[in-house]
Recover the amino acids of this structure.
């Protein structure tokens, strides 16, 4: 068990651990409630039942995705890619307008890190106690406290891993087999794998993931412009910084920054925001809250550090609507509308037609010409359907199928051999385009068709 | 300045020493190299597994192999995920290795403006 844990720890131990000072304020409350809400959704969602089955289940062994009332098949893969493209565009749009909101509030890395830090605080106390404990000599109480923290971390990580696997295997069954110690090999493996990943990323690496491992942190600057929301220190107002009492000589010449360094103490990535925008900054707004608290105590205006834009800093107006955001918004709305439309009007019958590869045509004993096709039909609806198969495009086409009256239960894929026949005198020689149609007998609106070629010999 | 002018001494329990965060050492070259091999290849493996298995059912994959093997879906998902991770890690690892073993002349050339 401890193999990967030890590895992660040693990688981290190369540097001093950051114990960021706790902070309370408007933005940290928003951050905490967002994290709480997201975690609740994550842990509760697999337990919700919808019309008799797990509401959200990506059933990989059966290759079916259930999302509330919707069942998605591998044939609907396009929707998943579509969804991912929309998610990426949304991230671009949000980044352009509001900067790294994602990083500071919604990224799983941030959310789970907050949870793990909170657990650590439960076991080891606040940041200064944790710092002292780190420096303290090995003692019984230190070992006990660290053991308690590790126990909390491992349990929470395990619960996270279990829930993760519960999105792919029915979680209630998973739960009962876990209690009975009957988990399958792969299930056990993935629960442990995801638990260790959570423990390593959120418990030990934390914001180091953002600094050294996250590609988004590096390329998000490409989406920034002078109108994007950033967290910045008001240099004009703050500088020259310094303690007002100690520098009485320079009376009136000092800026509002009293150089208390609290903005650095609360920073989980260990940067000094007063040095300007840095890619390490995940926009968690801890420094904003901390500085505002101090400004309030010393009786100065808030927002020496605050959400602003480069234009606002330069005293120019900030525009939310600009070509870049308009393009993203238009694209996103178009994709979203077509996505919804096509998802809810998607055809529950899917049809693939394969021509017989061995013979272009056959001459039957009664003089008619026959072409043979293999039809692959999938019933993606939740009901059973009896099918009718038709051919159009040439005069006098007749279809005979094997099986003669195909019946498809929900989710069933059948392979149907279809022999299409025609009287050669009625049609010209050569290739013709015809359309094969399948139709549910009790619901003529439910149909699917495919175009294919029909060959008639020369004589 | 008057006596009730703002000052950091007014703020209770504020540690005035320079925060230790700033004295922090960045990751070592080795740690950064490991991270930039393991993590991007992991992300790549996730995406490739998703794309691949969205289009291919591993059961049919087993039938198409010579010799034909009985393919269990869960096993196929697991094994192929690690296969993708392994392949991507080789690629990332090679890139990192090439960057780190550039010869000195190339570096000098860059400093002199190529």
């Amino acid at each position: 068990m401890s193999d990967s844990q030890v590895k992660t720890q040693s990688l981290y131990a190369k540097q001093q651990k950051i114990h960021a000072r706790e902070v309370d304020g408007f933005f940290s409350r928003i951050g905490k409630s967002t994290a709480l809400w997201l975690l609740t959704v994550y842990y509760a969602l697999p337990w919700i039942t919808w019309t008799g089955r797990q509401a959200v289940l990506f059933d990989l062994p059966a290759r079916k995705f259930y999302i509330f009332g919707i069942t998605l098949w591998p044939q609907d893969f396009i929707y998943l890619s579509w969804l991912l493209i929309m998610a990426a565009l949304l991230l671009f749009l949000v980044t352009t307008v509001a900067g790294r909101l994602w990083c500071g509030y919604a990224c799983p890395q941030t959310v789970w890190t907050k949870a793990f830090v909170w657990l650590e605080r439960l076991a080891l106390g606040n940041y200064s106690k944790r710092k002292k404990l780190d420096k303290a000599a090995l003692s019984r109480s230190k070992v006990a406290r660290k053991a308690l923290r590790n126990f909390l971390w491992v349990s929470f990580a395990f619960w996270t891993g279990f829930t993760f696997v519960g999105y792919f295997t029915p979680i209630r069954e998973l739960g009962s087999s876990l209690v009975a110690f009957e988990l399958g090999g792969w299930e056990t493996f993935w629960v442990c794998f995801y638990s260790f990943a959570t423990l390593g990323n959120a418990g030990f690496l934390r914001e180091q993931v953002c600094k050294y491992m996250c590609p988004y942190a590096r390329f998000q600057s490409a989406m920034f412009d002078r109108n994007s929301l950033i967290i910045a220190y008001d240099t004009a107002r703050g500088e020259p910084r310094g303690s007002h009492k100690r520098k009485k000589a320079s009376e009136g010449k000092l800026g509002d920054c009293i150089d208390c360094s609290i903005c650095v103490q609360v920073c989980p990535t260990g940067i000094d925001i007063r040095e300007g925008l840095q890619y390490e900054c995940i926009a968690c707004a801890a420094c904003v809250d901390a500085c505002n608290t101090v400004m309030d105590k010393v009786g100065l205006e808030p927002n020496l550090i605050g959400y602003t834009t480069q234009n606002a800093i330069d005293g120019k107006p900030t525009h939310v609507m600009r070509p870049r955001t308009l393009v993203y918004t238009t694209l996103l709305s178009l994709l979203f509308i077509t996505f919804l439309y096509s998802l809810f009007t998607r055809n529950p019958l899917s049809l693939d037609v394969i021509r017989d590869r061995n013979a272009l045509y056959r001459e039957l004993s009664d003089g008619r010409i026959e072409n043979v096709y293999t039809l692959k039909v999938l019933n993606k609806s939740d009901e059973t359907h009896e099918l009718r198969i038709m051919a159009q495009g040439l005069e006098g086409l007749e279809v005979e199928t094997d099986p003669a009256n195909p019946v498809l239960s929900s989710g069933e894929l059948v392979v149907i051999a279809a022999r299409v026949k025609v009287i050669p005198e009625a049609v010209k020689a050569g290739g013709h385009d015809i359309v094969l149609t399948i139709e549910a007998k009790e619901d003529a609106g439910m149909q699917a068709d495919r175009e294919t070629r029909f060959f008639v010999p020369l004589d | 300045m008057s006596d009730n002018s703002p000052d950091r001494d007014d703020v209770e329990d504020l540690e005035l020493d320079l925060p230790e965060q700033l004295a922090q050492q960045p990751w070592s070259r080795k740690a950064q190299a490991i991270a930039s091999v393991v993590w991007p290849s992991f992300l790549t493996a996730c995406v490739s597994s998703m794309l691949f298995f969205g289009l291919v059912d591993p059961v049919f994959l087993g039938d198409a192999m010579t010799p034909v093997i009985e393919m269990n879906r869960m096993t196929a998902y697991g094994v192929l995920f690690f296969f993708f991770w392994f392949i991507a890690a080789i690629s990332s690892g090679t890139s990192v290795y090439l960057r780190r073993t550039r010869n000195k002349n190339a570096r000098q050339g860059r400093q002199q403006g190529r």
